[in-house]
């Protein structure tokens, strides 16, 4: 008696601003959805991590305990814990409900750019500017990492985890994929010549807001990788690098499937992602917009103006056309045009 | 927020509070719809909600932290995983309610509204054409199933008696066309619920449902045989009348009593024939009018009586089990005496061979041949000998012999410690004895000595007197003491007396005796206590090998061009064997891809620290440590301290130029086989001589990687000679700066180095001395210089001079000139060393083709394959100027 699946709707892009939240935590370094997309985390430059219900705009909890700005955070699959990493070189495991620090992993020699849980939230993988990825065991009380992946030649800017893979983008221009099941490391060179002398100008707001965490390299001969991610079908990898280019690579062969240009990303570590059904490629831009490209055709589908400044971070809802962007000290929640708030709480 | 949080934290989740009022529920449920559609679907027990829920409605957002929020406090089955099958208990409860409700069947309405939720498997099966009530599997023809099983086929195990399964179906003998297939019969799954009660097997308690409402339960089939009369009026009346009765299998029957037939069976008249019929009704009873229940069961009844109730799915066997055949015990031999005696074991030696013979003869068998031992006369070692095993070290007479050396030592230590305690006690008494017997040694004292000797001697047996010299100031006394120890070891009773100076007075003797005894004790104790506090080094501090990754990401330059051409794929990809940690695999729920390996990360190989060019000459002799391997650079890159890595822009340029060398090296390595450790003595020497320069550890770890690289680098010309250098000469600004600052020392280092390669050694060393860097210069230059000195003592092939033909004289006279010329190349060179990268063979053509202008003389070498090159290198004669 099951009803047949409704016909797949044409993909809709989140372009209706639903909400703008002033997070009140300095510059928002990163915004992340939780596992089911009902909540989000914001990483502030004022050393706090905040948990929100983005649709209703309510602050649920503030997590403080970092010694420096928080640069990335992630939630566990069961929503019971969070992990975050920041400029204090520490990786912190939080208890969601109590807001307490459960573990603090120290060992990185530089600030932690990115953190991820594995599928079962038993391991935290953290990528740091010290060019290593460390795998921290959440189960045991061991203070040292289970393993340190130190193949990168320069800072690790992005780490993503699938059920058996670790995908890491590094400033050395390489994207490395560690396949645990095969026991192999695939290293794809993506860096290319930077288009022009990468500027140093920062048009971002005042000191209270802070400036985006930029990859400050006076001159960049190659395109350091700023963000990598798996496609949702696990067949492709999306890489963004500082040459203002996103590339879609075949995961298995490393071949180039698509290239997406038009946005501006020459200085900062900006996020990119794929839409909820892998139909579009989404990227932040330094000109205050979010760019949407059609994944297959590679044409620009939408340049969504968010505001003045650099769109520092974004997060895409796992199942719905819902986008969160972080610009300056606030986050914005975007839905598709047809979206209407289900509940009156809005 | 904080106040609210703390508030809500104190809320205990308690179940049992009533659900929210209706008007409230609608909105809230909707909001929570994603998380708890169970509430809607009715799978959550309606009417049950947490107190938290009801409280949180006033607090906007608190439900986000409740059961279905982001941080659930309890484990809740979400809709996705909830079982969609009908809950039997609830079903029963509903039936019960329906029966007792004022309007019977009122729940029918509920059933109609129940959302249709089917499990995924159910839906899948349906889509595959399955229908409820059918079995799963390919469709079958019914014909073959009705055939009787072949009598020739034996059925093992628990097979149902033939015909019992088919009996229910297919009795109707309709015509079934061949092309009609049927779905397989649905099979009720075997109930595997564990038995957790103390009832007997297959016991079924009173089912109130059936007992009370009498819906065709088995208890009402008590009159099983009479079911054909179910339509009778009496039967119906019976059912109605029993509606409120109680019936049960074990109801009212004691455990020890034999079960009655059925104490609740009611005899009714309807069970009896009331009419005498004329003809035989066909039941073979010929007018016998006993109750129907006794009619058919007659024969099986008696079986059942002692077997008890037959379990579901079983039936009584028609054939009795064939009784087990009992075999008689084996016949014993006539002269067998059931007594065993143990033959005395006598080792075979020359002395008791006679005895052995007698013994064996008495046992009823003569020794067949002294040469060939019978099985029992061989001991383990002899058998091992016969088998050709290598004999175990030492005479294996005790278990202790099989212990490892380490264990033995430990045991000895333990023994010593315990002996020591006893010895201390004894020694104390001895001291007293000695005092008392100072004037005249009494027999008692002698006895005391004796025991003390024994005690102490055992402990001292292993001690070395040489290490501990308590009387070093007085050599005479020390000598006496050592003598005393020796005597002690030999177990001589009068050790003390013997070694004492006869010219001493009694008092002196007495004192010395005390001293010696105490010293011996002290020594023993200090020995054991101290040794227990130290442990062996696990790693050699001064090992001359470093671990470097076996494979390295190769050239970036080619990749960059590939990227420019958008030729991603093979050209831009490097694949390595990578070993994840075992624990990591476990945490990821992934089988360990290399279960046998203990390696973690990229495979690493040990290589000599100073050895890159050792490999070139390795096969002939022990290599000369003339060249310092640049592998330190590698270790620096791969070292534990990642924060110290050079910044990306200088590695980027380095990487471009490294590949040709690294490729060559890898080739050479593959030719040379596993690297050997040869340069160690030299290095040690070096260390001793130049301790003020930081140890080779620091050198190799590379505090100042740049300077170090410059200092320990082999001649540029060598590189240039071997490999046509790549065309791009550009170096980043930082490199230039560094180059300037290091110019002098680098030049000298280079010069030294070159001189060592092909020129007169005597000269070289002097030059090297002249050029010896100032003390504040970085340490790496010192090792080079030392090595050159050492080179005179070491004989072996040097790097052939052909590689730097134009440098041989130049390096002294035209050093300056050359330095300028090579200023730019240096950076490239040291990067050559920095990372040895394996390069795919097809890549070398591109790097070689881009020749630089300054290597015309070696053009031909560039064309030659690396293998050929290596071969030539080896075969070149040494040339001395």
TrEMBL record, chain A:
<dbReference type="GO" id="GO:0043122">
    <property type="term" value="P:regulation of canonical NF-kappaB signal transduction"/>
</dbReference>
<dbReference type="InterPro" id="IPR015943">
    <property type="entry name" value="WD40/YVTN_repeat-like_dom_sf"/>
</dbReference>
<dbReference type="GO" id="GO:0001666">
    <property type="term" value="P:response to hypoxia"/>
</dbReference>
<feature type="repeat" description="WD">
    <location>
        <begin position="63"/>
        <end position="104"/>
    </location>
</feature>
<feature type="repeat" description="WD">
    <location>
        <begin position="21"/>
        <end position="62"/>
    </location>
</feature>
<keyword id="KW-0963">Cytoplasm</keyword>
<protein>
    <recommendedName>
        <fullName>WD repeat domain-containing protein 83</fullName>
    </recommendedName>
</protein>
<dbReference type="GO" id="GO:0000398">
    <property type="term" value="P:mRNA splicing, via spliceosome"/>
</dbReference>
<dbReference type="InterPro" id="IPR051980">
    <property type="entry name" value="WD_repeat_MORG1"/>
</dbReference>
<feature type="repeat" description="WD">
    <location>
        <begin position="105"/>
        <end position="146"/>
    </location>
</feature>
<dbReference type="InterPro" id="IPR019775">
    <property type="entry name" value="WD40_repeat_CS"/>
</dbReference>
<dbReference type="InterPro" id="IPR001680">
    <property type="entry name" value="WD40_rpt"/>
</dbReference>
<keyword id="KW-0853">WD repeat</keyword>
<dbReference type="Pfam" id="PF00400">
    <property type="entry name" value="WD40"/>
</dbReference>
<dbReference type="GO" id="GO:0071013">
    <property type="term" value="C:catalytic step 2 spliceosome"/>
</dbReference>
<comment type="similarity">
    <text>Belongs to the WD repeat MORG1 family.</text>
</comment>
<dbReference type="GO" id="GO:0060674">
    <property type="term" value="P:placenta blood vessel development"/>
</dbReference>
<dbReference type="GO" id="GO:0032496">
    <property type="term" value="P:response to lipopolysaccharide"/>
</dbReference>
<dbReference type="GO" id="GO:0090594">
    <property type="term" value="P:inflammatory response to wounding"/>
</dbReference>
<dbReference type="InterPro" id="IPR020472">
    <property type="entry name" value="WD40_PAC1"/>
</dbReference>
<dbReference type="GO" id="GO:0005737">
    <property type="term" value="C:cytoplasm"/>
</dbReference>
<dbReference type="GO" id="GO:0001843">
    <property type="term" value="P:neural tube closure"/>
</dbReference>
From TrEMBL, chain B:
<feature type="domain" description="G-patch">
    <location>
        <begin position="117"/>
        <end position="137"/>
    </location>
</feature>
<dbReference type="Pfam" id="PF01585">
    <property type="entry name" value="G-patch"/>
</dbReference>
<feature type="compositionally biased region" description="Basic and acidic residues">
    <location>
        <begin position="50"/>
        <end position="62"/>
    </location>
</feature>
<feature type="region of interest" description="Disordered">
    <location>
        <begin position="134"/>
        <end position="174"/>
    </location>
</feature>
<feature type="region of interest" description="Disordered">
    <location>
        <begin position="533"/>
        <end position="560"/>
    </location>
</feature>
<protein>
    <submittedName>
        <fullName>G-patch domain containing 1</fullName>
    </submittedName>
</protein>
<dbReference type="GO" id="GO:0003723">
    <property type="term" value="F:RNA binding"/>
</dbReference>
<dbReference type="GO" id="GO:0071013">
    <property type="term" value="C:catalytic step 2 spliceosome"/>
</dbReference>
<feature type="region of interest" description="Disordered">
    <location>
        <begin position="624"/>
        <end position="881"/>
    </location>
</feature>
<dbReference type="Pfam" id="PF26093">
    <property type="entry name" value="HTH_TGH"/>
</dbReference>
<feature type="compositionally biased region" description="Basic residues">
    <location>
        <begin position="809"/>
        <end position="838"/>
    </location>
</feature>
<feature type="compositionally biased region" description="Basic and acidic residues">
    <location>
        <begin position="634"/>
        <end position="660"/>
    </location>
</feature>
<dbReference type="InterPro" id="IPR000467">
    <property type="entry name" value="G_patch_dom"/>
</dbReference>
<feature type="region of interest" description="Disordered">
    <location>
        <begin position="1"/>
        <end position="64"/>
    </location>
</feature>
<feature type="compositionally biased region" description="Acidic residues">
    <location>
        <begin position="734"/>
        <end position="745"/>
    </location>
</feature>
<feature type="compositionally biased region" description="Basic residues">
    <location>
        <begin position="872"/>
        <end position="881"/>
    </location>
</feature>
<feature type="compositionally biased region" description="Basic and acidic residues">
    <location>
        <begin position="547"/>
        <end position="558"/>
    </location>
</feature>
<feature type="compositionally biased region" description="Polar residues">
    <location>
        <begin position="751"/>
        <end position="767"/>
    </location>
</feature>
<feature type="compositionally biased region" description="Low complexity">
    <location>
        <begin position="846"/>
        <end position="855"/>
    </location>
</feature>
